[in-house]
Design brief:
Chain lengths: ~325, ~280
């Protein structure tokens, strides 16, 4: 039985040597191959993300209108009109209030939830599944339930609050300026806090139990354990999750559009809804496009922060 | 005595107590949806008494109105068709791209990966105006195909990013040994990599489908004919006539419209949670 092996040995060396060469060739051809592998995806993105983005820059300096084929270059007229438009400034303020109120509340109610989920108990999978439902069901559909619950006459929320004697007359949730913003924030929080909680939970599970135990032995209470042990470990994950969440809130359209369409008296307009109103409903695409562009600098800041963070990790 | 009772409660229900208010907040709107769907109009608009249960026998009238007098079934078909097409397009473009970005060494790889990541952060609210011009320009105005070709613009970056993470978990050695056996890149990809990343493909499909099914602003902007609407768009517009809200039928539409995603979701919870955290954290 020794002779076949004797024959096999030299051929094998040859095979390995030649395959090393071809492995190198394999690698060498990657540059060409990548064009075929990744090319279609990037061609698609170029046409449906990069090109429309450039197009919106162009639209913002044009007099484009819905249904009219003629565009004229109008310079910065659209921007002058925006700056002179009080509704635009209201929109800017609303967008910030909407975003930061939503994020803050999501964190505040998401953190205890993440802690509550960060232990094993019977039916944990079911509970986790149920908690995530608002995030999965299309917001267009779930917002209808909220619109009905906020109804001016038949609001079940008012019924509960009045029965509990918390309020003594029916609130006009979607009809009163300040309250309308509260309502859209409630919807946005309801819809997004499961996401925050899952991200936080992923962060918490990344904290090794030994570290917590060690802190316990050293006599650290729950609060100090959180501040000095858990928080520093969770922070990077939390930060990335939060930035995502901020970007999505800041550029949200559906929650506001479906509940209030920006009303009453434009008190809930955010960039997306106001741009839609101007660009599509009023047909002034040029001005609509320039409104959307104001989201960009802020997004850029978020993205730069995020990339820095990712690089550091 | 009461202290012992409290201790017993805490022992048996400890983990559930802090969760119950969350579950209430999360689930109440859906409960309200269901109750409203089956309540008679008289009952819905009866302000006396506790509203949480039926005061009159339940009715199917709202569901019937939804199915008979609106194009609900057509919207549902549209949404499912669009979802299926977008999943296919996303995987067809995203899988090879993910493999190339995760595995091949070439100049510009880093920059292209970053570009993929960034394009996910460019929101529909920024692009819907130019895209509405674009789809009309290429002859897809007011058709469901306008959505099929545009939706991958948000599913593709997310899913490619997700799939890259899965491709990276495939050990280099397996691929190299396949190559030693004379496999080309494509054969290695098809016979070695694809079978290993099946969970990733499932996760990416789930996300592509749910993101598509949820989308609202593009549908609202591109589509106007009722027969071309998606579920999310049709239900929110066609059951509100002037100032009249058909609340019973609206809730029926919201309820039935939620079923497809709820089913997909129920069967893929672990994939879903994994994708959610991976997408955000990688």
């Amino acid at each position: 039985m020794s002779s076949p092996q004797g024959y096999a040995a030299p051929t094998r060396t040859v095979a390995v040597a030649s395959s090393r060469k071809s492995l190198a060739a394999w690698r060498h051809s990657d540059g060409v191959q990548a064009i075929f592998w990744a090319g279609p995806a990037f061609l698609y993105l170029a046409f449906f993300i990069a090109y429309p983005f450039v197009m919106s820059l162009y639209l913002s300096v044009s007099s484009a209108r819905v249904g009219s084929p003629e565009w004229h270059f109008v310079g910065l007229t659209n921007f002058q009109r925006i700056f002179a438009d009080p509704v635009f400034w209201q929109t800017v303020r609303n967008s910030f209030v909407f975003t930061f109120a939503s994020e803050l509340i999501r964190l505040v109610i998401g953190l205890p939830l993440a802690f509550a989920l960060n232990r094993s108990f019977k039916g944990k999978r079911l509970v986790q599944g149920l908690i995530l439902i608002p995030f999965v069901i299309p917001i267009a559909l779930s917002s209808l339930a909220w619109k009905w619950m906020f109804d001016s006459l038949y609001s079940v929320i008012n019924w509960m609050l009045m029965t509990a004697h918390i309020i003594d007359y029916p609130w006009q949730w979607l009809g009163e300026p300040g309250l309308a913003m509260v309502s859209v924030v409630i919807l946005n929080v309801w819809r997004g806090f499961p996401f925050s909680a899952v991200i936080l939970l992923a962060g918490l599970t990344a904290v090794p139990t030994e570290v917590i135990e060690a802190a316990k032995i050293d006599g650290a209470g729950p609060l100090r354990r959180f501040v000095y042990v858990v928080a520093p470990i969770v922070r990077p994950i939390l930060f990335v999750g939060l930035l995502y969440s901020i970007v999505f809130s800041f550029t949200d359209f559906s929650a506001v559009w479906l509940l209030t369409q920006g009303g009453p008296y434009n008190t809930t307009h955010v960039f997306g809804t106001y741009a839609y109103n101007v660009g599509i409903n009023a047909g002034d695409i040029g001005m609509g496009a320039s409104i959307t562009l104001f989201m960009f600098p802020l997004l850029a800041v978020f993205v730069i922060v995020m990339l820095r963070l990712l690089r550091r990790e | 005595m009461s202290r012992n009772l409290w201790r017993a409660i805490k022992r048996d229900y400890g983990p559930y107590l802090p969760l119950s208010p969350y579950l209430f907040i999360v689930l109440f709107p859906f409960y309200w949806m269901i109750i409203t769907t089956f309540k008679r109009d008289n009952d819905l608009y009866n302000l006396t008494g506790v509203p949480f249960w039926f005061k009159e026998p339940p009715t199917m009238a709202h569901v019937q109105l939804l199915l008979r007098d609106t194009l609900f079934i057509v919207w549902l078909k549209n949404s499912l068709l669009i979802g299926a097409c977008v999943v296919v397009v996303t995987l067809a473009l995203g899988l090879p791209a993910a493999y190339a970005l995760a595995r091949m060494r070439f100049r510009g790889n880093q920059a292209m990966s970053t570009a993929m990541f960034l394009s996910y952060l460019i929101p529909p609210a920024l692009l819907f105006l130019p895209l509405s011009q674009l789809v009309r320009g290429i002859g897809f105005g007011d058709s469901i195909w306008s959505l099929v070709i545009v939706y991958p613009s948000f599913t593709l970056p997310f899913c490619t990013w997700l799939l890259m993470g899965f491709v990276r978990t495939v050990p280099h050695e397996i691929e190299e040994s396949a190559q030693l056996d004379g496999c080309t890149r494509f054969q290695t990809f098809r016979m070695i990599v694809l079978p290993i990343i099946v969970p990733g493909i499932i996760t990416a499909s789930i996300f592509a489908f749910t993101l598509t099914y949820q989308e609202f602003i593009y549908a609202l902007t591109f589509i106007s004919a009722s027969a071309n609407k998606t579920i999310a768009y049709g239900v929110t517009t066609d059951l509100i006539r002037g100032d009249v809200f058909y609340w019973g039928s609206l809730m029926a539409g919201a309820l039935i419209g939620s079923v497809p995603v709820a089913i997909v979701y129920a069967f893929s919870l672990d994939h879903f949670i994994h994708g959610l955290t991976a997408g955000a954290l990688k």
